[in-house]
Amino acid sequence: MCILFLMNMKNAMKQVVTFVLVVFVLVVLIPLVKESFKSAPGQEAHVGEIFTVVLDSDANPAFRWDLLASDETKVQLVHEPDAQEAIAKTEVWTFRALAPGEVTLYFGYIRIDSPNMVAARSHSVALTISP
């Protein structure tokens, strides 16, 4: 009887610990992770309008920002910073809005001599294009 009672207590403790861990994940960890993935406030543009994206740089000649993904049916790259501009403290990318809708531009801060490696930093820009 005593052994059965102890086994039931052990199972009850496992359930309590499991419950506390689930609550911790739901209440603390998930909101923290979601907050870390929020992108910068979105930009707005009208069809035909030229707009810029300014990215902070370390002025390190071994690294530069690269446009990883965009929707070429909605935005057109007009100017990509050249090597001289890439070693400044900021890189200014210029785009033209082509079609109404929403698009996200994804940038990666990559090592120039190893473009296939994972980006050291990343940045995304949400864009709303109005007619």
The total tally of domains equals 2
Which structural class do you get from the secondary structure elements?
alpha+beta
Strand order of the largest sheet: 1-7-6-3
CATH class division of the largest domain: Mainly Beta
End-to-end Cα distance, whole Å, is 77 Å
Dominant shape: elongated
Give the structure's gist in a few sentences.
The protein is an alpha+beta fold and 131 residues long.
What would you note in describing this structure?
The chain is of the alpha+beta class and 131 residues long. A four-stranded mixed β-sheet has the order 1-7-6-3, with no helix packed on it. A three-stranded antiparallel β-sheet has the order 2-5-4, with no helix packed on it. The protein is elongated and about 80 Å long. The mean pLDDT is 80. It has two helices and seven strands; from the N terminus they run H-E-E-E-E-H-E-E-E. The protein has two domains: 1-38; 43-130, Immunoglobulin-like.
What key phrases describe this protein's structure?
single chain; 131 residues; alpha+beta; Immunoglobulin-like; 2 domains; 4-stranded mixed beta sheet; 3-stranded antiparallel beta sheet; 30% helix; 40% strand
Detail the topology: elements first, then pairings.
Elements: H1 2-36, E1 43-46, E2 50-56, E3 63-69, E4 75-79, H2 83-86, E5 90-97, E6 101-111, E7 121-130
Parallel strand pairs: 1-7
Antiparallel strand pairs: 2-5, 3-6, 4-5, 6-7
